[in-house]
Amino acid sequence: MIKIQKEDFSVEEEIKKVKAKSARIGGIVAFLGTAREFSRGKDIKKLQYEHYAGMAHKKLEELRERALKNFDVLEVAIIHRTGEIKIGENIVLIIAAAEHRREAFKACEWCIDELKRAVPIWKKEVTSDGEVWVEEHA
Question: pTM of the prediction?
Fold first, then answer.
C-alpha cells in the first residue's frame, strides 16, 4: 500500500483497492496533493521531486505502520510521485480507511504532516527566475 513512482495514479482506482481490504470500512478519507502554479510570490512552471530511494520507501512503510497502530484505522495507502510534475498534476495521495470517519480524518492528516516532516523526498520549484529547492514543509 506504499508506492513511490514517476507515473500518475488514479485516485478512484487506489480508493477501490483500499476499500476492498475490509467490509468493516465505513469511512474513507483521501488527501490529494497537486501541483499549483503559484508559490511564495512566484509563478511556478513545473515541479521536480527527488527522493532517497531505499530510505524514502522504508520511511513511508514505517509511517503507514505507525498510523495503523496509533489510530483506529483499518487501512492506509500512500503514493508519492517523483520526477517532473507539471502544473495541475497529482503529486501525493494518502488514503485512510476506518469504521468511522473521525479516525480516518485524524490518520490522514497525521500521515501527510509526518510525510512532509520525516520522509526524504525533496521538491524543487522551477520558476521564470530559476530553480528553488523548497525547504519548508507547508
Answer: 0.94
